[in-house]
Adenylosuccinate lyase
Amino acid sequence: MIERYTLPKMKAVWSEQNKFQKWLDIEILACEAQARLGRIPQKDLENIKARAGFDIARIDQIEAEVQHDVIAFLTSVNQQVGESGRFIHMGLTSSDVLDTAWAVLMKEAGRLLMDDLNKLSAVLKQRAWEHKDTLMMGRSHGIHAEPTTFGLKLAMWWQEIQRDILRMERAIETISCGKISGAVGTFAHIDPSVEEYVCQKLELKPEPVSTQIVQRDRHAEYLCTLGIIASTLDKIALEIRHLQRTEVREAEEPFSEKQKGSSAMPHKRNPIISERICGMARVIRTNALVGMENVALWHERDISHSSAERIVIPDSTIALDYILNKTIWLIEGLRVYPERMALNIESSGGLIFSQKLLLALVEKGISREDAYRIIQRNAMKVWEGGGNLKQLVLADAEVARSLDAKAIADVFDPESFIRNIGHIFKRIGLNGPN
């Protein structure tokens, strides 16, 4: 479904070759553990390790007949091993192999996503410092509120990515559980030391209590984490889409020399990558719901989870890997227009200073209700008819009784809005560009 978006390293994680290799690694490690217990002769173990392999085309051929992927895999392996193959999969059930392999594969995918997150973190940090003091309009409900800085917006995104990094670390830890405990998780036909050996070699923890499967709340947490990270990227891309709107045009995503924005309108420069990030984030979030639906299964297990997670786990990691890399590209090349930001600040006719003016009157002894009435009366004239709030309040007798011209001039100083930006940067640990 999303093959065209798969980056090479993530594609390799979810390749058939890598999946079957993990299955084979688990089977061989289990044989090693069984040999340590004296259940497999050493000569047979050596033969298994020397000859065990698989043929993907042969596996597909066998599966078409037997309708069971693990049996098809084992048949292919045994055809290469010969007589010693009778010891392979001894005491195991299919999910011992499948779920332990899932853990390894999800760890591999998770580490690639961690690399992406750390790269995005570095890019956001650099650009946050670049625009730490770049004054721009802050908005609430989409309406001009009070000035902020573009660097603070980037710093907020950087801080959220730090939380996403911690979430991803926890999700990888949660999913890093294997199980080699047999048909219903009771170790009826296999010694617990086999599970301990296999998991230790694969850098996993044994599932403390399993049924036939590793419990799917682990997978749900992993998928939900991917969904949260995708939502962070959605938030970033959505804001850039807003900033690129013609009426705003304070920032825009890169646009190459030969790029075309519309089949009909040559002037168009559309935020297509930002829109793609937002769209794919929806898919990842939706897949997280499938993960939660997979938690509840019949008794010791059914396989209603299996077909679904074979789609949503690879697709979610592939999609997130893709949009993480697109977000890195987006932030690195983002075009920022401070001059336009300044024009947008000025366009409100000084309305953005209404709270400062309100507080200045309150500090002079006027009640908040009366001060609000005075400022709103003047502000609505600007809102509905244009003009400039500063000029109106300079001519307002009620304001003049409390504030002289110099005091009013001090109120209308935009730099005062950002005097504590450095404090925020320091509080979140953004102490320098490097």
Remarks:
- Residues 135 and 149 are 4 Å apart (CA to CA).
- The two ends are 39 Å apart (CA to CA).
